[in-house]
Amino acid sequence: MSVPRVMLGGVGTRSVSPVFVGRADELHVLHDALARAAGWAELAAAQELVRGLPPSRVHAEVLTMIAGWSMVHAPGPEALLDAQRAVEYARMVGAGDTELNARLTLGSLMVDAGDVEEGLAAMYAVRDEAVERSLTALVGRSHVNLPSCLDGVGRAREAAEVLREGLEHTRRLGLPETEAFVRSNLAESLFALGRWDEAVESASKAATLARSAKPRGSGCLHLASLALARGDAGEAARLLADARGHYGTHDLVPQYAIPLTGLTIGVAAAEGRIPGARAALQRALDTGFPPGTQRYAWPLLLTAVTAEADARGLPAAEEGRAEILGRVATVLRRLPTGAPVWRAHEAWVRAELLRAGGVPAPEPWSAAVTAFEPLERPYDLARVRHRLAEALPASGADEEGRDRAAELLRQAAAVAGHLRARPLADEVARLARRARLPLARPPGTPSPAAADPVEALGLTGREQDVLRLVAEGRSNRGIAEELFISPKTASVHVSNILAKLGVSGRGEAAAMAHRLRMFSRTP
Fold first, then answer.
1. Residues near 53 by Cβ (< 8 Å), separated by ≥ 6?
2. Among 50, 124, 394, 426, which one has the highest count of C-beta atoms within 10 angstroms of its own C-beta?
3. CB of 148 within 8 A of CB of 183?
4. Interior CA angle at 208 toward 202 and 212, to 5°?
5. Positive or negative, the Cα torsion across 323, 326, 328, 331?
6. How much is the pTM?
């Protein structure tokens, strides 16, 4: 989940009514921090004050703030037009810094609208210029908004790299509140990447470091998601309540409201309260999913249909079941899938809908597995592998199919054990017993991963290059010179490699690479 993407800089004071315009910005930020008001009344009043006056920098700044407000509160085509107008106006009056701020907002809205690469390129350009010119507020905002958009299209590893850089900048510049936002977003990226202990640490720091409500709420929400995935529904419920308290009830924007509802559904399902889960889903469907919020909508729908599928056959869950599943199916036809991660989620949700209807066909689950395999989302991949392993025997698979199911279960069990994802581990164990699928590989049977240990460990091409140099004893600076990257980027790659290998230092990583003969085929 992203954190507030509108982190507005101060308004200039070089035109008519500077006190009021400055006060509008101050009140907007204050209201956002206290989770009490939207700030729109102040922005609208500021807009009225400058309407009809000669073009000025203050006018450009007001338009930029309005575009930012629209991005968070009312995303969609009109917000995109607001941002385009703000960029053009700032450029016209020569307000360079304001134009950069507006371009960052515009880039984010372009990503939401499906123009992913151009939008991200625009945001990277703003980030780079802000860093080069030491524009403190924009350095902070760009290191929150850019990785949020990267996460929103499933590029969690890239987001994590930007966020790590953001931590360095925010600490150096003395921006503790922005650091809290960065840490909250980092927790989301780390969760997707399967680095859950690091995610817990990052979310906890966000919740304790922040002085305002939003990052505290986001930190609690991430911790609640982790607790639920690890099987502690009671702790998840407590943290969910804390998150609600921090966010407040006034002006709960979609980027908070939708994930809150998704977690509400998940907690209710884990506690066996299917009517409560369904009621929360009904409210979300009644409200609808505004344009640009698909990144929050897909996980919510997945949680809901998974709960319905798990509850199939329970008498208390039958009434109203067909109707709610029909409503979900209708929503799917309208929800964008503009990135591979959301196309994978669509395949997953459709497979869960069939499971909820009692259809054990393996083909939809095979499609979901295929969609997730290229993505760096080990927990998601383990879950769909578990469901494919369940569907194969249920559909009367032959011996080869049963062998495949057993291997899928072993892979899912390994991930569940590594992440300490107890609910998934328990489901895998139950299925293995019920379907009589061995979780232990028969003696003498080679692991499919044995043929390619590098691929089995999930290392990217660049990480393979870095690990090879680590195994040769190169320092970060030596790696950077060899691969034409910065030492900081080399350090990030090394940290990611250590996490994937499950080792604590470079020496252990090098030893593992040599032991597994990972680069024995390298000329």
1. 15, 16, 59
2. 50
3. no
4. 110
5. negative
6. 0.80
Task: State residue 16's pLDDT score.
Answer: 31
CATH architecture of the domain covering 462-515: Orthogonal Bundle (1.10)
Where along the chain do its domains lie?
Answer: 1-153, 462-515
Averaged confidence pLDDT in the chain: 86
The token duo for 392 is 């194969």
DSSP class per residue in 222-270: HHHHHHHHTT-HHHHHHHHHHHHHHH-STT--HHHHHHHHHHHHHHHHH
Q: Which residue ranges of the chain lie beneath pLDDT 50?
A: 1-38, 449-451, 521-523
Half-sphere exposure of 267 (CA within 13 A, CB side): 23
Q: Tell me if 371 sits within 8 A of 347, measured CB to CB.
A: yes
User: Dihedral of CA 364/366/372/377: which sign?
Assistant: positive
CA dist 403 and 392 (Å) reads: 10
With beta carbons less than 8 A apart as the criterion, state whether 348 and 331 touch: no
In terms of Cα–Cα distance, which of 412, 456, 1 is closest to 226? 1
pLDDT score at 453 = 53
Cβ atoms of 364 and 349 closer than 8 Å: no
What six digits make up the tokens of 386?
């578990």
Kindly calculate the radius of gyration of the chain based on its CA atoms and give it in whole angstroms.
24
Q: What is the pLDDT of residues 478-494, one digit of tens each?
A: 888 888 788 888 888 88
